[in-house]
Amino acid sequence: xxxxxxxxxxxxxxxxxxxxxxxxxxxxxxxxxxxxxxxxxxxxxxxxxxxxxxxxxxxxxxxxxxxxxxxxxxxxxxxxxxxxxxxxxxxxxxxxxxxxxxxxxxxxxxxxxxxxxxxxxxxxxxxxxxxxxxxxxxxxxxxxxxxxxxxxxxxxxxxxxxxxxxxxxxxxxxxxxxxxxxxxxxxxxxxxxxxxxxxxxxxxxxxxxxxxxxxxxxxxxxxxxxxxxxxxxxxxxxxxxxxxxxxxxxxxxxxxxxxxxxxxxxxxxxxxxxxxxxxxxxxxxxxxxxxxxxxxxxxxxxxxxxxxxxxxxxxxxxxxxxxxxxxxxxxxxxxxxxxxxxxxxxxxxxxxxxxxxxxxxxxxxxxxxxxxxxxxxxxxxxxxxxxxxxxxxxxxxxxxxxxxxxxxxxxxxxxxxxxxxxxxxxxxxxxxxxxxxxxxxxxxxxxxxxxxxxxxxxxxx
Amino acid sequence: xxxxxxxxxxxxxxxxxxxxxxxxxxxxxxxxxxxxxxxxxxxxxxxxxxxxxxxxxxxxxxxxxxxxxxxxxxxxxxxxxxxxxxxxxxxxxxxxxxxxxxxxxxxxxxxxxxxxxxxxxxxxxxxxxxxxxxxxxxxxxxxxxxxxxxxxxxxxxxxxxxxxxxxxxxxxxxxxxxxxxxxxxxxxxxxxxxxxxxxxxxxxxxxxxxxxxxxxxxxxxxxxxxxxxxxxxxxxxxxxxxxxxxxxxxxxxxx
Lengths: 461, 255
Ligand SMILES: Cc1cc2nc3c(=O)[nH]c(=O)nc-3n(C[C@H](O)[C@H](O)[C@H](O)COP(=O)(O)OP(=O)(O)OC[C@H]3O[C@@H](n4cnc5c(N)ncnc54)[C@H](O)[C@@H]3O)c2cc1C
Ligand SMILES: NC(=O)c1ccc[n+]([C@@H]2O[C@H](COP(=O)([O-])OP(=O)(O)OC[C@H]3O[C@@H](n4cnc5c(N)ncnc54)[C@H](OP(=O)(O)O)[C@@H]3O)[C@@H](O)[C@H]2O)c1
What we know:
The structure holds 2 protein chains of 2 kinds. Chain A is of the alpha+beta class. Helices cover about 25% and strands about 25% of the residues of chain A. Chain A folds into 2 domains: about 75-185, Uridine Diphospho-n-acetylenolpyruvylglucosamine Reductase, domain 3 (2-Layer Sandwich), CATH 3.30.465; about 190-415, Vanillyl-alcohol Oxidase, Chain A, domain 3, CATH 3.40.462. In chain A, helix 10 runs antiparallel to helix 11. Chain A starts with 5 loop residues before the first strand and ends in a 12-residue tail after the last helix. Chain B has one domain: NAD(P)-binding Rossmann-like Domain (Rossmann fold). In chain B, about 50% of the residues lie in helices and about 15% in strands. Chains A and B meet through strand 5 of A and helix 2 of B. The structure holds flavin-adenine dinucleotide and NADP nicotinamide-adenine-dinucleotide phosphate. NADP nicotinamide-adenine-dinucleotide phosphate binds near residues 16 and 69 of chain B.
């Protein structure tokens, strides 16, 4: 079968440095398998909704398989909440179909617009990580196409090594064809949220340590321009599920529906000057001032979990050159590193429009899964001269304190840096040698960071 | 006596049910509570689509084999649909179609012939059977996906365009015959949609409509009993202009 492809310049959500790829978009399982087995002429990589920020879902001069049209739901068991789907199904679709029936994904990242394939390939985390772990905690099994072994079913009990390499494995073990996951029961589409201001980073971390266990969901917004005693001042936004009986009248009528909202859209690339240290400072001041401490505020799921989804194409705010998202996780004993990183940002005036802080619970079993016990800080940094050198400084702080970067976000780190951060990398490579000995699967991330073993010799470029 | 609105009986047959557009239309119909029959050549794939619709919408959805070129089977097929649904279907929509590369169709008559057979003859053959059923019953809707390409022949796709033009004219006549019998006929004329048919073609991204949006427009037009729907609406204007370019000028253009 001769599937047609499109030549496109693809980038991650940060729109940082697009690269040319041959993009296929099969709509039938047969067509996908023909493409994979018939051997696309060059290396292949699956891609979901392109919400990873860096280069995880691009494959320069190689083939990219857009999976978004392989989005059929296969079965749902209303007793257990088990859902079987093709991996192109998005969390947004799952929520639209199942929230009104009282079910919700076990873990959601900060946007609904990710596919199941993408959510598994980065073992994404959500605001409930400290309680429930990452996405893979809710995945029962995966049917995976691999270059060497054909289609294998893997789960925590069957082909477990392939499963734990695929979870968090950035698409490098193969192409997921089908996924079985468990949804969880919810009674309403609302949380009761407590908003708490913390005058600086130490106060924020104290608050996380003292009371995170009281909340199902927890996250904080950080002002990374504040300095001195205010360094890292934050607004903690933590919440719990609400029983429908407690909801105010309007929402109580339809407890499982989120209000329809008008979505704004950023229609074109903003010119570079729109986001500058001054405007970002003004935004941060306003945000801190506006978020007065409140307790028990009813907030619907869309607003609480996916605030950014209300502005379509918000990544255009950063202009043509795009931006880099930097997510750094420090172990509990690495708090000094977290402070040092915030200091470095405020001194360098490399303001992040959005900075987010969260406390993680224990890490899972994914060989390259990102989360580990500690604190995670996420920054957006516009591309401007000196950015790479600056990120190098941040990497050093992170390494010195035993921390790690998140592959779903990273766009620039070196192989040495990544290898030092992921102690199970050799184990991961061992699985790749079995499932893909000839390096048929490739991505820019894999080549840049060297996380795939050097069998990809055949690739030139 | 006023005709019953086209959606009053909530069941529909989508022919070419495996097309990108048909799947998106099936979702709109299912959302509105329609029972569905999807029919196409590849029943294994159709079964996957049908199962998805059942999981998402809890609607009954059957997958049946259908070949637009097997004219002799079309009468039995219409009867089979009624059996699958437990009633004569409320409506039928033709979504199947093929788009040959124009140069191939110029050089190789069998390609051109196949294009005419699927896009026009196949549609006409099967719709005649449903037309008779609906006419007898005195209600129902018939729709088919034609194309703006059928509005005026252009060098880049006139063989496909001619087949779609025949389909549009056929539907117009059918409408004229059936309106007084309480049956609605809708001609759907998409511009460019982002489907598997057009993936890889060099088309201006700005003019590509996503199938969900196209399906929304098409289903709304059908259920409102409109005679014709451009998808999206701005194509009406584009085609109005193109149709009114004087022949003297038109023949010199490369469209
Ligand atoms: C606004 C925003 C907020 C976010 N918040 C969070 C957050 O809170 N927590 C978090 O963890 N992440 C977060 N992310 C990151 C996002 O969740 C991940 O990058 C996720 O992987 C994106 O999924 P996708 O479908 O867009 O995948 P893509 O970005 O398209 O691909 C990601 C990876 O998945 C692989 N892949 C995709 N489909 C398949 C398949 N079928 N088989 C094999 N491999 C496949 C690709 O090869 C690639 O390596 C956020 C992103 C944005 C834009
Ligand atoms: N995409 C556009 O830009 C565009 C513009 C104007 C009009 N249209 C029309 O829109 C309709 C839907 O097309 P689409 O864009 O959604 O593309 P598509 O997915 O390629 O749909 C075409 C469908 O027709 C089916 N088909 C072909 N020959 C058949 C036969 N002999 N019997 C039964 N089914 C047959 C195909 O089935 P198999 O795949 O199993 O062969 C396929 O499912 C078509 O009529 C097309 O002409 C499309």
